[in-house]
Each structure stands twice: as C-alpha cells, then as structure tokens.
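Support reply, case 0932

Customer input (verbatim):
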Amino acid sequence: MRLTKKQVKDFQQIYKKLSGKEISYQEAMESGTKLARLIEVVYKPITKKEHDNFLEFKKRNNA
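Our regenerated output:
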C-alpha cells in the first residue's frame, strides 16, 4: 500500500496534534503505511449473515 503525499502530510499533522512532536516526511510515510497495513489486515467487514446471526444471538440471550 502506498500513501499519497496528502495522506502523509495529514498523518504528520495528526501525529503532531496528538503527540506534540513533529516527524519527518519519511517517518510519516513509514508510520502511516504501517498503520494503514495494520488496519487492512485486522479490519474485516461483517457480512449480512454474520450480522443476522449476532442479532439472533443477542435476542436469545437478552430476552
């Protein structure tokens, strides 16, 4: 995955806002790419069937 220049600049701004520290463009590119890859690997959208199963489970256990 490759970040755009705007995404890297946005990452730098967010990083500074949250940490109070400035990072270089290269550091932002590396950290932003790692973060995006982590989200890509970890995030899995739930299917409609899984959602329906969850609602049924919740309904049975909360009633």
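We compared this against your earlier run and they match. Two observations from our side: DSSP finds three helices and no strands in the chain. The two ends are 45 Å apart (CA to CA). Please reopen the case if you see a mismatch on your end.
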